[in-house]
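Risk register update: the risk of archive-format incompatibility is retired. Evidence:
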Amino acid sequence: MQKTDLASFNNDWYKPGGTLFKRAFWYMVNKWFFASVFPFYGPKRVLLRLFGAKIGKNVVIKPRVSIKYPWHLDVRDNVWIGELVWIDNLTKVTLHSNSCISQGAMLLCGNHNYKKTSFDLVVSAITIEEGAWVGAQAVVCPGVKIGSHSLLTVGSIATKSLEPYGIYQGNPAQKIKERIIR
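Archived output:
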């Protein structure tokens, strides 16, 4: 029976974008202004744009948010990002207008191939469509699309894409009913 051999792990194919200096500088900016208790939304939006993120109007970014690589981030208008959100965007993350990522949620674009002895890195984009809501402490896995106006409830884990206007709960998240907006 084969065993995992982390000494054989090779991540050379993955290119995160930006220069080493840009990534190091972003790490410090992220720590000082995003992952800290810095409360002001406007300067955060400006900083993200300076680092290559596409940021729409009226984007709310609460304190203690962590964003891996802003140049892979596309946030449309009227998006809310709650406290302690972790956007591990090794590749593209798109948050469409009027979507909400609640406190403590994680958007994870990377994983590892557990079937390979070398535990290869696997990355895939995440899309949160218009009006969708990712609940507190919920997890969105690589390659998942959260459909328009769907809801991933508190503490749930989306391992596959969610249909529009569905309410999903559990691990893995299962559709429990339709979301009706009045």
